[in-house]
């Protein structure tokens, strides 16, 4: 039996995720946030970072830094401390 591994196919769903590895802003170790919960700011407008895919790459672009809403205080903006979060790209190719 032969099954295509779909490497080289355009991902159907692409995501950028961050995982908490040291508690911060109300988030516990193991909590994950996806691209839909992150945002960037150009000084006047908050927008979700754009995720761009090609056959072999996934990228996302932010204005200055990306941020999220604090879990313990939802209306408080926080920027992730790099030492407290891991990040990864996820590509679902549909197989």
Textual characterization of the structure:
It is a single chain. With 95 residues, the chain is an all-beta fold. Helices cover 0% and strands 39% of the residues. The protein contains no helices and 9 strands. It has a 4-stranded antiparallel sheet, with no helix packed on it. A 3-stranded antiparallel sheet has the order 2-1-9, with no helix packed on it. Strands 5-6 form a two-stranded antiparallel sheet. Strand 3 and strand 4 (46-47) form a beta hairpin. The radius of gyration is 16 Å and the shape is globular. The model has no long low-confidence stretch (mean pLDDT 81).
Provide the descriptors you would attach to this structure in a database record.
mainly beta; four-stranded antiparallel beta sheet; three-stranded antiparallel beta sheet
């Amino acid at each position: 039996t032969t099954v295509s591994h779909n490497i080289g196919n355009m991902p159907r769903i692409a995501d950028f995720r961050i995982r908490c590895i040291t508690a911060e802003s109300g988030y516990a170790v193991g909590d994950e946030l996806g691209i839909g919960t992150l945002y960037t700011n150009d000084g006047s407008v908050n927008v979700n970072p754009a995720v761009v895919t090609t056959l072999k790459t996934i990228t996302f672009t932010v204005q200055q830094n990306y941020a999220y809403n604090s879990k313990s205080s939802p209306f408080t903006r926080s920027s992730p401390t790099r030492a407290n979060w891991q990040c990864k790209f996820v590509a679902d190719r549909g197989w």
